[in-house]
C-alpha cells in the first residue's frame, strides 16, 4: 500500500464534504463569464473561498491582475523547511476565463473548482495528520487567448513543484489525450489607398495580399500532416468598397504534435505570408501573439491518475484510441515542459463514460452541459484522482523522484513519435475529441 493510498478515503471524503459549496462556486462563475485577464469576479470569489478554507492566498499574484496563488503547508513542513530540509510540493491549476459570446463553452467554471477540490483533498490529509508536504493551487487566467500560465512560469509561480496537474471537461474520458502545440501570429499588410473606380491602378491592394495568404494557407493543408492543424481568419479587409484597401490583417493559428512538425508548418506559413506581400507589392508585419507547447504526459503520474479514476468508476478506451482523439491546445503544455505534469480530460455528460458524438467543446451545447449536476459530479471524481495522485507525490517514498527521472528523460522527446501509429488510430475514434484553446 502506498503512502498516498493510506489516506485516500480521507481525501475523497474531504472533497465530498465541500461538494455543495463547490457547486455554488461553479455556478457563480458560469453565470458571470469573463474573458481572459478580465476575470475579476471569478478571481474574487475563488480567492475568498480559498481563504475561508484556510489557504494562504496571494491575490493579483506576480503582478497579474486576475492570477492568484493559494498554498497550504503543514506545521511539520514549515519546521522542516526552516531546518533546511526540502519539502515536497504538489501543484494544481485552476482556469476560469470564458469565450466571447458563448460563455463557459470550454467548462472553465468546472476547471476552476476541480483545482480547488484537489487542493482541498490534499490539504485535509496534510492538516489532519501534520504530514510534511505543501500544496499550491495556481489560478491561471487567459488560457483561451494568450495563455496566462506562460508569464506565471516566467515569474516563478511553478518553481519548486515536484508535479503540477489539472483536469479538463470534454465529451469523453481520456488520460492520454494528444494535446497539440499551437502558435498564433497576427499578419498585417500595408499597401496604398486610391479611388477604386477613378484610379485603381494608383493603389496597392493590401486585401489582395491577405486573400492571397488566406488561399495559400488553404492550399498548404494538402501537404500538412493529418496530425497538424492550421486555421486563419481575416480581421480587417479594408475601409470601404470604393477605396483600394491600404491595410488588411488576419490571425493564423497552427498546431502540431511535436517540435519537428511544428517547425515545418511554422516555416511554411511564414513563407506564404511573405510571398503574398511580395506578389502584391505590399509590405508585411508578422507578430507572434502566443505559443503553447504540446502536453507531454508524465507516465507515472498518468498511470496513477488512471488507476484511481478507474477505481472510482471511469471506463477508459485503449490508450492508442485515446491518443488518436482530435484535440485542441493549452498553455498547460508549457507548464508540463517546466515541471512534471498531466492534463487528463473527463466526460462531463456521462458518469458511465458514454461518449456523446454530438457534443464538442466551444459550442453553446457545451456551455449548457457545464452547469449540470452530472458535470459537477464528474468534475469532483476527476479532482479526487488528481488529489490521490498528488498525495502519492508528497508521501510515497521514491515516487516524486521517479516522476522527476521520467520527466527528465522523456520531455525533450515530447509529442507523438510515430505518425504512422497515429494515422492508423485516427480511424478508430469519433470525430469529437477533447477541446482546449
Automatic annotation (TrEMBL):
Domain Peptidase M20 dimerisation: 186-278
GO molecular-function term, one example from the UniProt record: dipeptidase activity
NCBIfam families given in the database record: amidohydrolases
InterPro entries: Amidohydrolase, Bact_exopeptidase_dim_dom, Peptidase_M20, Peptidase_M20/M20A_hydrolases, Peptidase_M20_dimer, Xaa-Arg_dipeptidase
Family to which this protein belongs: Belongs to the peptidase M20A family.
Name of the protein in its database record: Peptidase M20 domain-containing protein 2
Amino acid at each position: 500500500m502506498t503512502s498516498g493510498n493510506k489516506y485516500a478515503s480521507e481525501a475523497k471524503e474531504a472533497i465530498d464534504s465541500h461538494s455543495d459549496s463547490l457547486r455554488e462556486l461553479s455556478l457563480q462563475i458560469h453565470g458571470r463569464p469573463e474573458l481572459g485577464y478580465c476575470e475579476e469576479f471569478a478571481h474574487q470569489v475563488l480567492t475568498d473561498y480559498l481563504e475561508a478554507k484556510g489557504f494562504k492566498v496571494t491575490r493579483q499574484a506576480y503582478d497579474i491582475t486576475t492570477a492568484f496563488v493559494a498554498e497550504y503547508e503543514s506545521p511539520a513542513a514549515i519546521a522542516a523547511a526552516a531546518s533546511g530540509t526540502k519539502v515536497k510540493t504538489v501543484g494544481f491549476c485552476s482556469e476560469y476565463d470564458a469565450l466571447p459570446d458563448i460563455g463557459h463553452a470550454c467548462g472553465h467554471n468546472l476547471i476552476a473548482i476541480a483545482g480547488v477540490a484537489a487542493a482541498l483533498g490534499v490539504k485535509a490529509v496534510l492538516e489532519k495528520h501534520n504530514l510534511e508536504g505543501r500544496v499550491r493551487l495556481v489560478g491561471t487566467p487567459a488560457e483561451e487567448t494568450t495563455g496566462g500560465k506562460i508569464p506565471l512560469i516566467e515569474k516563478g509561480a511553478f518553481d519548486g513543484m515536484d508535479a503540477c496537474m489539472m483536469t479538463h471537461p470534454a465529451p469523453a474520458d481520456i488520460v492520454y489525450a494528444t494535446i497539440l502545440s499551437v502558435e498564433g501570429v497576427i499578419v498585417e499588410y500595408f499597401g496604398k489607398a486610391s479611388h477604386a473606380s477613378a484610379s485603381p491602378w494608383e493603389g496597392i491592394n493590401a486585401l489582395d495580399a491577405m486573400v492571397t495568404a488566406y488561399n495559400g494557407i488553404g492550399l498548404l493543408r494538402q501537404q500538412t500532416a493529418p496530425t497538424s492543424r492550421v486555421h486563419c481568419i481575416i480581421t480587417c479587409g479594408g475601409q470601404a468598397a470604393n477605396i483600394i484597401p491600404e491595410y488588411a490583417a488576419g490571425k493564423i493559428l497552427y498546431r502540431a504534435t511535436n517540435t519537428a512538425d511544428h517547425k515545418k508548418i511554422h516555416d511554411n506559413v511564414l513563407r506564404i505570408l511573405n510571398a503574398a506581400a511580395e506578389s502584391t507589392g505590399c509590405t508585411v508585419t508578422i507578430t507572434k501573439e502566443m505559443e503553447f507547447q504540446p502536453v507531454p504526459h508524465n507516465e507515472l503520474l498518468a498511470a496513477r491518475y488512471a488507476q484511481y479514476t478507474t477505481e472510482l468508476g471511469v471506463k477508459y478506451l485503449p490508450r492508442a484510441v485515446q491518443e488518436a482523439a482530435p484535440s485542441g491546445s493549452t498553455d498547460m503544455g508549457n507548464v508540463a515542459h517546466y515541471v512534471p505534469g498531466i492534463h487528463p480530460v473527463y466526460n462531463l455528460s456521462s458518469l458511465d463514460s458514454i461518449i456523446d458524438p454530438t457534443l464538442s467543446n466551444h459550442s453553446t451545447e457545451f456551455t449548457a452541459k457545464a452547469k449540470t449536476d452530472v458535470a459537477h459530479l464528474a468534475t469532483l471524481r476527476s479532482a479526487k484522482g488528481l488529489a490521490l495522485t498528488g498525495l502519492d507525490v508528497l508521501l510515497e517514498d521514491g515516487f516524486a523522484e521517479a516522476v522527476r527521472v521520467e520527466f527528465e528523460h522523456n520531455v525533450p522527446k515530447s509529442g507523438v513519435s510515430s505518425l504512422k501509429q497515429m494515422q492508423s488510430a485516427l480511424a478508430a475514434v469519433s470525430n469529437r475529441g477533447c477541446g482546449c484553446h
